[in-house]
Amino acid sequence: MIGQQPLEIAINDVLDRAIHSGMLRSGVGSFVQVGVELESEYLDASLRNNPQMWTSESIAICSDIRDVHLGDATPHASILIGGIPCTGASRSGRSKNSLEFAEDHDEAGALYIDYLNWLRATNPAIAIIENVGEYAKTASMSAIRSVFKHLGYDVHETVLDGWDFGSLERRKRMVVVAITQGLGDTFSFDNLKVNKVRESCINDILDPVALDDESWKCYDYLAVKEERDKAAGKGFGRQLLTGSEDGCGVLGKGYKKGRSTEPFLIHPIDPTLSRLFTKAEHGRIKGIPQVMLEGVSETTGHEIAGQSVCYHQFDSVGEEIGSFLMRSRNNILKFQKRRAAPEQVIIVAAPEPIVAQTGTMSLFN
């Protein structure tokens, strides 16, 4: 199997590790060739906690993606991974920011243009996008599809729920896998596997938090807000859980703030008290390897996990991408001979399976 180093544009740490892990299980090794991340603390955590993804050849860029200059020396990529920010497309984001269109968001609305710029500059064989399900109906996604078609990609698109792949969180995400025409036609979301048995209930992943711990609090102001929101017809309600549930709603980036619509755990004795999940519990709810949240504060841990994905959902996507590459290796050999000079191609042979050191580029946290 043959591969160039994949490039990663702005690191969505969990998404990247899941894709890399799934590909490796199919026999395709990979590493981050270029990663761009705005927040230094997130980047440091990724470099520290994901040594299997970063090598001495990796380029880590701490910057706003819009400030990274794409010149003639920009390396080509095998795989481009982009988690375009969903703040303008999600239901809560539109409501909070009073947006008519996702593209109206001051910070995130136009970032799809940067994704397309990186797509053209790096010329990947495969491009991956994840976002909220609502993003599929935006003008941004329509433009992305048009550019994919113009550049010669076959676009595979679906919405997947993390709960269906073994996570306790019911988190639906749009998944797009665009494959260069001529590489093969065997990729299909119908081939995705469920590789994790979901816990029977939320109680199975809880930390031993004492009943008199200070994390148990009275959130009367959230009850008042819930009534106010219902009266205003907003339709947002609280998620108060006992732990016996077989799943929960989405925990977002700002979960540590104690927001009204995200899950709280009710005190087992005093129903007037409740608490937030710990960062470790948050990780388990999404199926995130615990090591990925080590060395950061509770707030930062929730931020990393909250803006990520359900791990096993994208691990399965990565496995199917890897299996597709293995099935299509003869086509890939021909493709790379056309698009790359010999010194740009890395061939790594192993008895079984044959492992390609594929580089990824990851964009937008």
Notes on the protein architecture:
By secondary structure, the protein is an alpha/beta fold. The protein has 2 domains: 2-196 and 308-363, Rossmann fold (3-Layer(aba) Sandwich); 202-286, no CATH class. It is built from 10 helices and 13 strands. The strands form 4 sheets. Strands 2, 3, 4, 5 and 13 form a 5-stranded parallel sheet that branches. A hairpin with a 7-residue loop joins strand 10 (263-266) and strand 11 (274-275). Helix 7 (279-286) packs parallel to helix 8 (298-306). The protein is elongated. The two termini are 30 Å apart. Mean pLDDT is 85; it is low at 341-356.
Annotated CATH topology of the largest domain: Rossmann fold
- As a whole number of angstroms, the C-alpha radius of gyration is 21 Å
The CATH class of the largest domain, by name, is: Alpha Beta
Count of separate DSSP helical elements: 10
**CATH architecture label name of the largest domain:** 3-Layer(aba) Sandwich
- Count of extended strands: 13
Spatial separation of the terminal alpha carbons: 30 Å
Classify the helix fraction into a percent range.
25-40%
CATH superfamily of the largest domain: Vaccinia Virus protein VP39
Low-confidence stretches: 341-356
Structural class: alpha/beta
Measured by DSSP, the beta-strand proportion falls in 15-25%
Q: What's the number of structural domains?
A: 2
The rough form would be described as elongated
Q: What is the average of the pLDDT values?
A: 85
> Could you describe the largest sheet, including whether it forms a barrel?
5 strands, parallel
